[in-house]
Automatic annotation (TrEMBL):
SUPFAM superfamilies: MOSC N-terminal domain-like (SSF141673), PK beta-barrel domain-like (SSF50800). Residues 125-263 form the MOSC domain. It comes from the Bacteria. Signal peptide: none annotated. This is MOSC domain-containing protein. It comes from Actinomycetospora termitidis.
Length: 263
């Protein structure tokens, strides 16, 4: 297999930045999920998993430039993450006060409505939003959903007929068979000089169905998973999944085009 795409997401729930080469450590790709917005009223991390409140974040993009996070607004303005204007701009656009954080508070959680309910009732519906603690499978204080790395294969993407962008993976790996990632748990995945260990199938929320920049909504991003790939996610139940989370066994540098071997 081969690593075809490398993407980091410096700000949680914003569009990310593709790179050719990147360092990988215990907390994942360098500068990935490095910042997040928090709702000071509830204390929850702001994520498009709760589309009624936060889907607008997917119209923003974030990148790292000279060790700084910069955010590009839907109107094309670029603002440094440390600039107070960013919080002002986001709060006004989202219609709710937000704060930007560089370190994940202990026990940080997100609100995650059932994606099937969102599809059935619409993104504006007031749907029950159970909370989920993030980063349970990683050390450090970044804002990853579970384990430090998120990956998916081109076989799964091609089978679904949906753009990789919608699933927000760090690594897209060419090869395999549809949903083969389910069987990789506990094995070692050698990516160039880095060794990963898949930990969980990736449960899918509403995010892949939402607008991502210029891409419109796409219910097909999760509806086939509800029929074809409901699997047991240890600790979370039987859920529609695509891709896998992974922990870092051995860090190093990876690059697009690196060979990928399952051991």
């Amino acid at each position: 297999m081969e690593l075809t795409t490398l993407t980091r997401y410096p700000v949680k729930s914003m569009l990310g930045q593709q790179v050719e080469r990147i360092a990988v450590g215990a907390t994942g790709l360098e500068s990935d999920r490095w910042r997040a917005l928090l709702d000071p009223t509830t204390g929850y991390v702001c994520t498009a998993k709760h589309p009624r409140l936060w889907r607008r974040l997917l119209q923003y993009s974030a990148a790292v430039q000279d060790d700084r996070v910069v955010v590009t607004t839907p109107g094309g303005e670029t603002i440094d993450a440390e600039d107070p204007r960013l919080v002002e701009t986001l709060s006004a656009d989202l219609g709710r006060a937000v704060e930007i954080h560089a370190q994940r508070p202990a026990g940080s959680s997100v609100e995650r409505p059932d994606p099937e309910e969102v599809l059935a009732q619409g993104v504006e519906a007031e749907i029950e939003a159970p909370t989920l603690e993030i980063s349970q499978g990683t050390e450090g204080d970044t804002f990853v959903d579970h384990s430090p790395i998120h990956l998916i294969t081109t076989a799964t993407l091609d089978h679904l007929g949906v753009e990789a962008l919608r699933y927000r993976p760090n690594l897209v790996i060419a090869g395999g068979t549809p949903f083969e990632e389910n069987s990789w748990l506990g094995r070692e995945l050698h990516v160039g000089e880095v060794v990963l260990r898949p930990t969980l199938p990736t449960p899918r929320c509403s995010v892949p169905t939402l607008e991502h920049g210029d891409l419109g909504r796409e219910p097909r991003a999760i509806t086939p998973l509800m029929r074809e790939n409901r699997v047991e996610v240890p600790g979370f139940g039987v859920l529609p999944c695509a891709g896998a989370y992974a922990e870092v066994v051995r860090g190093g540098t990876i690059a697009r085009g690196d060979s990928v071997t399952l051991v």
